[in-house]
Each structure stands twice: as structure tokens, then as C-alpha cells.
Write a structure and sequence with these properties.
The chain is an alpha/beta fold. Helix content is 25%, strand content 30%. The strands form 2 sheets. A 6-stranded mixed beta sheet has the order 4-3-2-5-6-7. Bound molecules: inosinic acid and magnesium ion (MG). The site of magnesium ion has 4 residues, from β5.
């Protein structure tokens, strides 16, 4: 029953997301940035974030899965859903739910960089630096989090818990069973 414990409340999330929205609105005014959400975990974060931005912007989504997570080569990233938008010459803001090992994202960013955007910015809701394996340049993290398995506000365990309003710690017995 009590499988989750709140770590970051909905009110704290709201405040942090509004702050990032204001910052991005100042930074990208007149630049019509393309906001790229990395599915599925970022869907709630991105929908709150874009409503905190009062400038023109466009939104697109990508989904990818990494295999061979222990290697650092950029070869084995499978793009499950690619962008609909040509990003060449565009200001791109990649929005992630959480950066853990960083493997997925470092590969994804390498692929996007090859498409020659005018700029590429990485904003993540959560940064979990304890388990980093790949070098990722995080431009903005709303929260740095401890090495726990987190769920809620879009983040899942086996596709569950995405709808929790808080970011919560999942009890170890749930995923070690
Ligand atoms: P990375 O390649 O290890 O950085 O994997 C990042 C992806 O793994 C994230 O975008 C999440 O989808 C997932 N992930 C990593 N840590 C957690 C967690 O604590 N809870 C839920 N999903 C996580
Ligand atoms: Mg993700």
C-alpha cells in the first residue's frame, strides 16, 4: 500500500517549473524555439512548462531507447519516434524528465547536433548525478535528486505511477521483487 513517499511536492514542482518558464521566455523571446519533449516521462513537465512560457514557441516529441547501456558509443540508440520538424537553423530546447546514467540523452543530443540546429539547450526536471556514466552538458536542472528510484509527475515504474502529482520515492521492495 505505502509503496511511495513524497520527495518533491506538487507545489514545489509548480514553483520550479514557473521559474524555468520565465527564464526561457526571457532567453528565447523572438526566437520561436522548438521545444522537444523526450517521451514518455516528460509529458507532464513539458505541458506545465509551455504554459509557463509567454512567448511564441513550437512543440515536438521524440522517443528513443538505449541498449548496450554500458558502452559510451553513440551507435546503439534506437529512435522509436522521430521529430516531425526539421531543426536545421532552429533554436532547440530539449526537455527531459530525469537524467540518470545520461547514456540515452548523450546519444540523442549527438544525433540532434548533427542536424545543425542554431542552438541546443538541455533542460531537465530532475538530475540524478550519482549514477552518471556518459558526459552530458545539462544547461538547467530544476532539482538535483538522490540515488533513489523516483516516480510520479510523468515518471513511471513499469508504466505505473505516472499520474502521481508529487515526485515520490518508490519503495525498494516494489522493484526488487
Ligand atoms: P539514462 O540514459 O540512464 O539517463 O536514462 C534516462 C531515462 O531512464 C529517463 O529518461 C527515465 O525515463 C528513466 N529513468 C531513470 N531514472 C529513473 C527513475 O528514478 N525513475 C523513473 N525513470 C527513470
Ligand atoms: Mg526520459
Amino acid at each position: 500500500m505505502n509503496d511511495t513517499k513524497s520527495l518533491i511536492t506538487a507545489a514545489e514542482l509548480n514553483e520550479a517549473v514557473l521559474k524555468l518558464g520565465v527564464l526561457l521566455s526571457e532567453q528565447y523571446k523572438g526566437k520561436n524555439p522548438l521545444i522537444v519533449g523526450v517521451l514518455k516521462g516528460s509529458f507532464i513537465f513539458i505541458s506545465d512548462l509551455v504554459r509557463a512560457m509567454d512567448i511564441d514557441c513550437e512543440i515536438d516529441f521524440m522517443a528513443a531507447s538505449s541498449y548496450g547501456a554500458r558502452s559510451n558509443s553513440s551507435g546503439n540508440l534506437q529512435i522509436i519516434k522521430d521529430l516531425d520538424t526539421n531543426i536545421r537553423g532552429r533554436h532547440v530546447i530539449v526537455v527531459e524528465d530525469i537524467i540518470d546514467s545520461g547514456v540515452t540523452l548523450s546519444r540523442l543530443l549527438a544525433i540532434l547536433q548533427k542536424r545543425e540546429p542554431q542552438s541546443l539547450y538541455l533542460a531537465t526536471l530532475l538530475d540524478k548525478p550519482a549514477r552518471r556514466q556518459a558526459n552530458v552538458d545539462v544547461d538547467y536542472a530544476c532539482f538535483t535528486v538522490p540515488d533513489e528510484f523516483l516516480v510520479g509527475y510523468g515518471l513511471d515504474y513499469n508504466e505505473k505511477y505516472r499520474n502521481l502529482p508529487d515526485i515520490s520515492i518508490l519503495a525498494e521492495h516494489v522493484y526488487s521483487e
